[in-house]
């Protein structure tokens, strides 16, 4: 996730846009962590070379057209634009189906897009847009390169960089990147342009020129990521290539390695753009919990977002439990805490999430959690681990599906003597832990129903943001079992705290406290799982 940010120094000391020079189209590499995209580009070239449209003609035409701003107030609302985009894509695919049996042939797609263009069916009348294309949202997916052209995201058949003349200067409008698999974060990525001594000769290819000018103009550039849906949980065609629109970026810096001809362009994602899911809690949390995925097209599998644990019914009817509060004070008729305060529900604000947490897709560990704000170390509760409270016997039956089980353990680390947050006592040696139960010894020596060590939190169906926090052998969070004075005495809350100052956007991690070689599956076989935390002290095994 941490990328070395290139120096912001530019190779053009005059800070003025470069002028259009002769175009020397060759393939070039768009890099995410130095991975080349040549293969994809040459495939596009191969497929388009067979078409009749002469490249020279396209150039002439391009010189004449000028930019259209996507931000100008449009005649139609964004909703109707969106409908139009959907209809147009539907028409495109229907026509592909009609004209060719082999839908994956790019030649067919070019032909179909030409037909739609001739019929005036291109979105935005085939004009090139700078910035947001109305009707298209971040996260929208497209099955074929030509669909990007039809909807106005990227109107190039040959090049990964699209550009337009704006006030006499060529500027970049969109980039198609073909590599997503080696990144934790696409907020920053690097494009490597073609070689050529721009400073001395004043000449370079159009793509390099456009990106250089965009650096000065700071115009928004659309980024589209191409990926293979086979690798990320299926796609519209059950595996294959898909293009996903990732939003607007700007060229932050340009540099050139000593002795090398090619330029590198650092593109940085513009802030305040629509994200994939604005608030997965649907307003249940005080701070919205957004979901972003810069890795693939996968969505968070369904679960129900909760802000309080779900306790088993029998717990409330069992006098040995000694619970006086019902469902965390939600029922003012039954809850003794509420009755004490004249029927008023006590504030549960102490459990509110205060940091702007974000669920994001990691490279190798599924979803993870990070904070958009920096988090100072100390007694700041990041969040509580929530789910269904189940007995350990029940949890043991879930050994083959234990991803979201958190064994509460035998120890209570904090006791709140009142609703005041600062009156707790920290007394902890033993952490609670995620499953497997075999490792945590959850059943040891307990006969009483409400004794601790008999309960596990299952966040598979019901849970909150904490269910996405991954393990690290060098974690930046720690766990405390916290008991409020109105709680079921031996079912503490699992509260997560910052163990250090955590910079914004750094993944939040816990030590799952698993034991190696002690997890057993339902057939009695030893279970192992690799750890991809990446810490220098990583032992390479989760369990
Ligand atoms: C509580 S879930 C964490 C969220 C999970 N990544 C997701 O996508 O929903 C625990 C699971 O995440 C994965 N995981 C967490 N930390 C990991 C790590 N350091 N290395 C590999 N997988 C990890 C494992 O599959 C583990 O069973």
UniProtKB/TrEMBL annotation:
A cellular component term, taken from the record's GO annotations: nucleus
Annotated compartments: Chromosome, Centromere; Nucleus
Start and end residues of each stretch annotated as Disordered: 1-22, 61-83
Keywords from the UniProt entry: Chromosome, Methyltransferase, Nucleus, S-adenosyl-L-methionine, Transferase
Stored InterPro entries: H3K9_HMTase_SUVAR3-9, Post-SET_dom, Pre-SET_dom, PUA-like_sf, SET_dom, SET_dom_sf, SRA-YDG_sf, SRA_YDG
Compositionally skewed regions (Low complexity) per UniProt: 1-11
Top-rank taxon, per record: Eukaryota
Any Gene Ontology biological process: methylation
Sequence ranges assigned to domain YDG in this UniProt record: 131-272
Biased composition regions of type Polar residues, renumbered to the chain: 68-77
GO MF terms, alphabetically ordered: histone methyltransferase activity; zinc ion binding
Main location: nucleus
Occurrences of domain Post-SET (ranges): 527-543
Residue intervals of the SET domain: 355-513
Name recorded for this polypeptide: Histone-lysine N-methyltransferase, suvh protein
Protein source organism: Medicago truncatula
UniProt lineage: Eukaryota, Viridiplantae, Streptophyta, Embryophyta, Tracheophyta
Gene behind the chain: 25499868
């Amino acid at each position: 996730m941490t990328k070395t940010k290139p120096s912001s120094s530019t190779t053009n000391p005059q800070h003025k846009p470069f002028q259009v020079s002769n175009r020397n189209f060759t393939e070039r590499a768009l890099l995410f962590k130095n991975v080349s995209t040549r293969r994809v580009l040459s495939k596009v070239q191969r497929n388009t070379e067979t078409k009749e449209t002469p490249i020279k003609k396209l150039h002439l035409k391009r010189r004449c057209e000028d930019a259209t701003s996507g931000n100008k107030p449009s005649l139609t609302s964004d909703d109707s634009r969106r409908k139009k985009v959907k209809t147009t894509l539907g028409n495109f695919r229907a026509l592909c189906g009609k004209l060719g049996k082999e839908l994956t042939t790019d030649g067919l797609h070019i032909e179909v897009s030409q037909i739609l263009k001739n019929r005036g069916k291109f979105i935005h009348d085939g004009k090139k847009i700078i910035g947001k294309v109305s009707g298209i949202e971040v996260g929208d997916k497209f099955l074929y390169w030509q669909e990007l052209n039809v909807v106005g995201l990227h109107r190039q058949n040959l090049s990964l960089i699209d550009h337009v003349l704006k006030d006499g200067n060529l500027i970049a409008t969109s980039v198609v990147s073909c590599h997503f698999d080696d990144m934790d974060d696409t907020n920053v990525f690097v494009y490597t342009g073609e070689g050529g001594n721009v400073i001395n000769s004043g000449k370079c290819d159009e793509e390099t020129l456009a990106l250089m000018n965009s650096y000065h103009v700071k115009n928004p550039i659309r980024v589209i990521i191409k990926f293979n849906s086979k690798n990320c949980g299926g796609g519209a065609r059950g595996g294959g290539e898909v293009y996903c629109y990732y939003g607007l970026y700007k060229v932050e810096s340009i540099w050139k390695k000593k002795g090398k001809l090619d330029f590198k362009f650092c593109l940085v994602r513009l802030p305040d753009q629509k994200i994939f899911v604005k608030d997965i809690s649907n307003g249940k949390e005080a701070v919205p919990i957004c979901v972003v995925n810069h890795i693939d097209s996968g969505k968070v599998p369904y679960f129900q977002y909760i802000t309080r644990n779900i306790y088993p019914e029998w717990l409330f009817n069992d006098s040995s439990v000694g619970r006086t509060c019902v469902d965390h004070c939600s029922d003012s008729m039954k809850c003794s805490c509420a009755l004490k305060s004249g029927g008023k529900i006590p504030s549960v604000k102490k459990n509110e999430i205060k940091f702007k947490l974000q669920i994001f897709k990691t490279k190798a560990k599924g979803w993870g959690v990070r904070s958009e704000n920096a988090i100072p170390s100390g007694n700041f509760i990041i969040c509580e681990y929530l789910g269904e409270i189940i007995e350990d016997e029940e949890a043991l039956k879930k050994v083959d599906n234990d991803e979201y089980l958190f064994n509460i353990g035998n120890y209570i680390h904090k006791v709140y003597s009142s609703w005041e947050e600062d009156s707790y006592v920290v007394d902890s040696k033993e952490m609670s832990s995620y499953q497997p139960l075999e490792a945590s010894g959850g059943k040891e020596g307990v006969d009483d129903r409400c004794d601790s060590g008999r309960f596990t939190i299952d966040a598979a169906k019901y849970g909150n943001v904490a269910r996405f926090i991954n393990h690290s052998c060098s974690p930046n969070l720690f766990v405390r079992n916290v008991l409020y004075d109105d709680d079921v005495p031996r079912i503490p809350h699992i509260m997560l705290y910052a163990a250090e100052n955590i910079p914004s956007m750094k993944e939040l991690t816990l030590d799952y406290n698993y034991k190696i070689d002690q997890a057993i599956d339902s057939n009695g076989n030893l279970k192992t799982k690799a750890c991809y935390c990446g810490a220098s002290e990583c032992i390479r095994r989760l369990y």
